[in-house]
């Protein structure tokens, strides 16, 4: 990646909420160091670089629709020098099953950047495929696009697919990264907009400044699946249970020592007239 100063950067693009540095309910807070889950343990690959995360997290909030259209969701990871890269996009689901051979990306799709709130249907009917760590590979059709979202139907995007590669299967060009789902419609954060905003690249010049890896080599590292990580996490929690007060925020650990008001002596209780005790 070459920025507007002519400086080169070796980066990886993912979803902004995957490198979230804000206190957002339901999302981990990344401290800047980025690791990947390999079979041999977590491996450091770089540091979080430029990132923006503005998509809604509350479906009942009135601003949900507006933020879904205009909110950015991209994050760049500045890779360590020794980390090998490849232009191949892999398809493996949460159990490690593949739904297709690796596809080598040829470049990046560079569309006219839309203004905030502007909607275009110039992509209506065009194909799109995504790779994700939960659902593997699925393909569908684009419907419309906004500044920070290419919206499509027919994709099986789900939790855990975020940050995965989205591409045009006719050209094998990168469209963007998986971002979110609202009902049957999936949203992809456009890669060209992310590059323009993060590195000051003028609209229409992204393809000249950003190149995918010049290697199409097969990856030589085995990664843990979502199912493996979930099972390991459940096993750890079972062996290291948290005290009840930590599991339920606000629960007082001293409930047993609270002073409760005394009860009246039964002998002093006066039965109302006309009612006899049993």
TrEMBL record:
| Pfam families listed in its UniProt record | Trypsin
- Start and end residues of each Peptidase S1 domain: 11-184
Tell me the SUPFAM superfamilies matching this sequence.
Trypsin-like serine proteases
Q: Which InterPro entries match?
A: Peptidase_S1_PA, Peptidase_S1_PA_chymotrypsin, Trypsin_dom
Which processes are annotated in GO (biological process)? Answer: proteolysis
Which superkingdom heads the taxonomic lineage of this protein's source?
Bacteria
A Gene Ontology molecular function term for this protein is: serine-type endopeptidase activity
Protein name per Swiss-Prot or TrEMBL:
Peptidase S1 domain-containing protein
Tell me which species this is from.
Corynebacterium lactis RW2-5
